[in-house]
Amino acid sequence: MSMKCTTFQNPLIFSSLVISITLAGCASTATTPDDHSDPWTGWNHGTQTFNDHLDKAVIKPLAQGYDWITPEFVNEGITNFFSNINDVGVTINDLLQFKVTQTGMDASRFLINTTAGVAGFIDVADMINLPKHKEDFGQTLGYWGVPSGNYLVLPFFGPSSPRDAVGLVGDALFNPLTYVSVFGGAAANAVAAGARVVDITDQRDHLMTTEKIIDEGSVDRYDFIRNSYEQNREYYIHDGEPFENSDPDQNDESTDSTGTTPGASNGTKDTGVGDKKPGNTLKLSEPK
Fold this sequence. Notes:
two-stranded antiparallel sheet; 2% strand
């Protein structure tokens, strides 16, 4: 789906806070009481604490230094470069979800930005109205009906689920930097590792404002991130559209005398993670 705000879930070490904070973008913060099953809450709280300490000690100071020494045009170019690499995986996931038109658009984005955009440092595709899309392998698994499973916080990677943890493996296989590391020898491996660090640092730099909103606007930080993560994933898996409730028994039990479902319209289904319509979502400024 077309997007102005983007979540990046590259399988990169030290990426937990980058992913955690991005979760609030593109997701509504409304919740329904008792709508979450969180059987792994003990593990999740401990792992989130570990990730937060790692961010405070390593990632955030690195990002603040990066922001201080990097000119704005260089910062934007680095963001565009890694966004262009990400378009390879986006295109493959488009194809796996049979989004033919979007596959052509994202493949075109990559080709245009790689050539006319000087290896992706300039987002020429955006200038000619080829929008950036968000697709990853976790979304592809969801498209094919693989259930998400329980909420799970991963060390270094942050908020996830069993399905999206598997999705990280797919995303790694679709990332060209993976093959540079594996087949490129020691020098290429060092370059790829350095590129990953720069990518994480650049993403973290762009999320300073969002971090402040999370810290100041949430009563319970853990619940806020969990709720935002689950809503964010549902939003993208369904391309921001409500989806049909195909359970006739549930329809019979939940409809009133007018034949409509209280609190819903047009056959939408309450998934327990809030309204997914784009008009009701919190949109925060994120890197492309």
